[in-house]
Amino acid sequence: MILEGDDVQLNYEVIGEGSPVTLLHGFTQSGRSWHEIASLMPAGRKWVLPDLRGHGATRLQPGAPYTMEACTKDLVRLWDSLGIARTHLVGYSMGGRLALHVAAARPERILSLLTIGAHAGLDEEAREGRRRGDEALAQRIENDGLEAFVNYWSSLPLFEGLERRGPSFLAQVRAARMDNHVAGLAESLRGMGAGAMRPVWNELGRVKVPATFVAGQLDHGYAASARRLAASVHGGRVVIVQRAGHTVHQERPEAFSRLLLAHLDAASERSEPSPSSSTSA
After folding, report:
1. What is the C-alpha to C-alpha distance for residues 16 and 29, in angstroms, rounded to an integer?
2. Which H helix or E strand runs over 110?
3. Is the pTM of this model over 0.85?
């Protein structure tokens, strides 16, 4: 489905009926990357799967911004169009950073928060180097083309854990990445990369809903970020998934679906956040 905005045609999908859960994908992915997780979950929830700016079938007008702020407006417009006053919000990697941005900027729209392999922005001394790195990657996409970049991106150690799913699954992931466009991915890096993102660590105190921060046991940097996030949010909870790297929900979908269900069930039952805790899956 397409939602017309001022400067965007936002592609999205809705699966099921019930309490809404909005799922935000990572860089080079699209909303359909969540299909497997949605299929593993019991009935009774409405899964909202947007293609974020620069990704999938979402299209922007020339000069439109590729920013966390613009994506936040897209999501609010989407929720309004669907009659969703508040939603559970789940995000992976880039989508996790967006989820944190949304939760800090529009906490009144969130029922609960869960991120995978995410952080709330880089410290200032690290941002400039990351911006230069993201610009170099953007130029690489523009100069070498989509296929060469997807081959490079897929080979990064960050995604080694996906190999355990076998060649058929790897081919599926690659095909989904190839269903993007050079300009969209390049501008997404420039406007929504970790170097461009405004840090929101100091704003996370606004988040009063149940919050779970997930990372893979083998994804050491993001495991540390998950613990920092939990300490930044009242009642924040950490889940470290064993035998998993950065892409927890795709490397171990059954384990992730169980912890997501537990998070959603607990969020539906809890009226007050519990003290910060750490668990493993």
Report:
1. 21
2. strand 110-116
3. yes
